[in-house]
Design goal:
elongated, single chain, mainly alpha, about 120 residues, about 30% helix
């Protein structure tokens, strides 16, 4: 009983294989490899290509120049110690953009008369 369905399946399989052999080739043949064909590998006879583009200019973005910062901090009359107001002025100066940029600091001083 079971041999009839198996025989039918085998017969259909054999017919399908024979029928496939008679179909014309619909695929286009791939071209034979040639010397000009790109195989994805670098050409050993050529110089290496740069990945950097030479047609781009390198625009340097310059930071805006900071204006010089001038401040006068007094010791007060006849004293050698800074007042609280003078210390507050120094603290404000430390927070400026010029100080954060690390610019040069020039200190000048003079005295008319020093009392010790």
């Amino acid at each position: 009983m079971t041999s009839k369905p198996i025989a039918a399946v085998l017969a259909l399989g054999a017919l399908a294989m024979v029928g496939a052999c008679n179909e014309p080739d619909t695929e286009t043949p791939s071209p034979a490899p040639s010397a000009t064909m790109d195989n994805g590998l670098p050409d050993p006879n050529s110089s290496p290509a740069s990945i950097l583009r030479s047609d781009l200019s390198e625009d340097v973005i310059e930071e805006p120049a900071l204006e010089p910062l001038e401040a006068t901090i007094s010791f007060g009359e006849g004293g050698t110690r800074l007042s609280d107001a003078a210390r507050e002025e120094i603290e404000e100066l430390l927070g400026t953009a010029q100080m954060k940029a690390g610019g040069a600091i020039t200190l000048r001083g003079h005295t008319d008369l020093a009392r010790l």
